[in-house]
Amino acid sequence: MRYETLLSILASSAISQASPLRRLRAREVPQEHSHESILEGVRTSLALDNPENIVDPVFGLLGNAAAAEGQGSISDGDCLHQATADQAFTNAKAAGDVD
Question: Alpha-carbon distance 6 to 41, whole Å?
Fold first, then answer.
């Protein structure tokens, strides 16, 4: 009886540790760091001219609810990624920083 109880406790503990929900709580937004080198270039370009007041280019990689606080004067969250890229490219082109 003791062996079966111990085995069931260990099994339930192992299952709870392997739960995908446990891993989701500790995760960060994946794009935040995996695209850091690109985000740095876009930040530099947006610093030249940012008429839409986009807070940070990372908000364009997030969903609409998360991006709402960083979209500046862009009214449609679905367009934030494109608007950020367009402004960064326009600024880079004006600065002659396009290969």
Answer: 55
